[in-house]
């Protein structure tokens, strides 16, 4: 063994086996990002609480009790009741299911569409690239929230409409990222070798291009969840999102539209507002951590 190879061999020998692979190195870098770990734990608690809402909440979210009209927090109603006498704590947990579900589903749809179109644009270039990228530019020139409001107004407010509208109109971000990665990867030797052996476009996209773009796309998807949750809360607050009696964090805030409620009954708007803020912050922190962890330029720093 030469003298130049000895430091690398010693470094490999002292590195745990679980951290030698790409996934292990990414996890090691992610753990060093303190705010990302805080966001991951916070997000985990929120997700678990939403999934176990039926077990944790002592009341049904849609149970109306006119005798408990706008009651302050108490031993029976931990976060008080709303204008229909419904338990705020129960509605908060069940609303998390819908808000998180809408955010995740809309982000997955937009990333799936963007990944496919971005890979096609970067691989085939020519007219396909021109059409796809100009379409993305046109869609980015319109405020996404305004477009979604128009769609929801035309088709009617519902969870399905909300998810599809945000998913279909949110793909340009992922599309641009995947196109950039594809333009770089398509010139690599292994891609050229595969094409020389007769590999088709779909094979190249699924076997080489999508795996190469998985890291950046994961970050885009994570940040897309936060944006979708904010959009859902905004649209539900405006009455164009999740329809009552189903609870979402956005339509829970609808009750707090006058100064009397804001000043004298904070239990009706503070819990859903804090839930939205914490969830969006946690998702953004996780996204920042993933961005740093999946950056290959930080590999050497993680090994030191």
Mean pLDDT: 83
Share in helix: over 70%
Question: What profile does the largest beta sheet have?
Answer: none
- Low-pLDDT stretches are 1-19, 299-304
Q: What sort of overall outline do the alpha carbons produce when their principal axes are compared?
A: elongated
Tell me the β content: under 5%
CATH topology: MetI-like fold
Radius of gyration: 24 Å
Q: What is the N-to-C order of secondary-structure elements (H for helix, E for strand)?
A: HHHHHHHHHHHHHHHH
Give the name of the CATH superfamily.
Answer: MetI-like
The structure class reads: mainly alpha
The CATH architecture = Orthogonal Bundle
Number of domains: 1
What's the quick description here?
The chain has 16 helices and no strands. The chain is mostly helical.
Helix and strand topology:
Blueprint: H1 6-14, H2 22-32, H3 34-51, H4 53-56, H5 88-124, H6 126-141, H7 144-155, H8 159-168, H9 172-185, H10 189-196, H11 201-212, H12 214-237, H13 249-252, H14 259-264, H15 270-293, H16 299-303
């Amino acid at each position: 063994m030469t003298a130049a190879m000895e430091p690398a061999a010693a470094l490999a020998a002292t590195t745990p086996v679980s951290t030698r692979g790409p996934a292990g190195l990414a996890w090691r870098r992610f753990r060093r990002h303190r705010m990302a770990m805080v966001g991951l734990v916070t997000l985990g608690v929120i997700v678990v609480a939403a999934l176990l809402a039926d077990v944790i909440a002592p009341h049904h979210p849609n149970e109306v009790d006119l005798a408990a009209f706008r009651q302050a927090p108490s031993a029976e109603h931990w976060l008080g009741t709303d204008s229909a006498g419904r338990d705020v704590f129960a509605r908060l947990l069940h609303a998390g299911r819908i808000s998180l579900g809408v955010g995740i589903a809309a982000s997955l749809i937009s990333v799936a569409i963007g990944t496919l179109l971005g890979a096609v644009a970067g691989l085939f270039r020519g007219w396909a690239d021109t059409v796809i990228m100009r379409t993305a530019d046109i869609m980015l020139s319109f405020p996404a929230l305004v477009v979604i409001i128009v769609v929801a107004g035309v088709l009617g407010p519902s969870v399905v409409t909300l998810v599809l509208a945000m998913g279909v109109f949110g793909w340009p971000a992922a599309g641009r990222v995947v196109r950039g990665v594809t333009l770089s990867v398509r010139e690599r030797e292994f891609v050229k070798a595969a094409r020389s052996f007769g590999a088709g476009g779909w094979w190249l996209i699924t076997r080489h291009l999508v795996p190469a773009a998985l890291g950046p796309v994961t970050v885009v998807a994570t940040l897309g969840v936060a944006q979708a949750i904010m959009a859902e809360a905004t649209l539900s607050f405006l009455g164009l999102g999740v329809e009552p009696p189903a609870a979402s964090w956005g339509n829970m805030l609808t009750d707090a539209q006058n100064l009397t409620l804001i000043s004298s009954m904070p239990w009706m708007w503070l819990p859903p507002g804090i839930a939205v803020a914490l969830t969006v912050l946690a998702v953004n922190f996780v996204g920042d951590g993933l961005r740093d962890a999946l950056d290959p330029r930080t590999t050497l720093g993680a090994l030191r």
